[in-house]
Amino acid sequence: MKVFGDAARCYDLLYRDKDYAGEAQFLHNLLQCHFPGARTLLDLGCGTGRHAAHLVQEDYEIHGVELSGPMVARAQDRWQQLAPDRAGRLTFSQGDLRTIRLGGLFDAVLALFHVVSYQLSNDDLRAALVTAREHLKPGGGFIFDYWYGPAVLTDRPGIRVKRVEDEAVRVTRVAEPVMQANDNLVDINYQFFLQDKVSGRLDTFQETHRLRYLFKPEIDLLLKETGFQHLLCRAWLSDQEPGFDTWSVYSVAKK
Fold first, then answer.
1. Along the 255 residues of the chain, how does pLDDT read in single tens digits?
2. CATH number at residue 96
3. Does any domain span residue 171?
4. If we measure between CA atoms, which residue out of 16, 19, 100, 86 comes closest to residue 58?
5. Does residue 128 sit in the same domain as residue 179?
6. CA 138 – CA 169 distance, rounded (Å)
7. CB atoms within 10 A of CB 155
8. What is the full DSSP assignment across 15-65?
9. Do 120 and 185 form a contact (C-beta atoms < 8 A)?
C-alpha cells in the first residue's frame, strides 16, 4: 500500500498548524530526563524532517530515515535551508524501518507521528522494534507514539474534511475511515483536491493509509520480546496516564 507519494506535495501545508517546535522541546526534555547526555538520534519514519530540524537546534546529531522518496526530497529541501552548523549535524536517507541497518549506534531512537501504527502485523512491529534496538548503544532509549486502542474504540473515527491554502495552492482533503474490527486496523481513504491558484488547474488523487491501534499489554509484550524495558506509557505531550479520551500516546523504552 503506497502512502505519502502524491500527498508529499501538500504534506507540510496540511500540517503547518502542528506544533513541531513544541513537540521537539517536549522530546528534548523527555530525552534528557530519561537518557541524560543523549546527543545522537536516529529518527525512523522522519517524514519531511520537521521534528529533526527543530531538534538539531538543541545540538543533537540526527539521521532521519524515511520510506517515501518524495518525503525524503522534501526533507533534503529543508536541510538546505538550515544554517551550515546545523545542517552539518543532520542527514537523511531513504529506507524501510523494518529492515534498514546503518552500521552505527545512537544514543536514542525516535519514531514519531504514529509511525509505529503503520506497522500492521506483529511481524512488522517486531521488525521495527528490532531495528530500533540494533541501532542503540547499551542503555539507549526508544521513544515512539501510536494510536491508543481504548480511545479509538471509544471515540471512533469519522469523516473529516480539511481545507488549507497558501499563496500558490488550495488544498482540500477528505478522510473517510473504515474500521477493520477483527484486525485492530483503520483504513483511512483520503481524497485530495489540489488547485493551482494561478492557472486554476485542479489535480485530484487518492491514498489509503492503513493504521493499527495498539494496547499497552501488547506493547509491553513486544518490547520485552525484542529486548527492551518499557519505562512508561503516557498521553502524548503530557505525563498523564492514557485513557479512553487519549487517541495518541507515547512510550519510552530502554535497551
1. 567 778 888 999 999 999 999 999 999 999 999 999 999 999 999 999 999 999 999 999 999 999 999 999 999 988 888 888 888 999 999 999 999 999 999 999 999 999 999 999 999 999 999 999 999 999 999 999 999 999 999 999 999 999 999 999 999 999 999 999 899 999 999 999 999 999 999 999 999 999 999 999 999 999 999 999 999 999 999 999 999 999 999 999 999
2. 3.40.50.150
3. yes
4. 86
5. no
6. 47
7. 12
8. TTTS-HHHHHHHHHHHHHHHSTT--EEEEET-TTSHHHHHHGGGT-EEEEE
9. yes
In a domain, 1, yes or no: no
Whether residue 196 is found in the same domain as residue 220: no
CA pseudo-torsion sign 18, 108, 217, 222: positive
Print the domain residue range for 201. 151-212
Paired strand residues for 40: 61
Written as nine digits, the cell of 117 is 501504527
- Please state the domain count of the chain: 2
Q: Which residue is listed with cell 473517510?
A: 176
Together in a domain, 184 and 77 = no
- Kindly report the CATH number assigned to the domain that includes residue 181: 2.20.130.10
- Cα 163 from chain centre: 22
CB count, 10 Å around CB of 185? 16
Residues for the chain: how many in total? 255
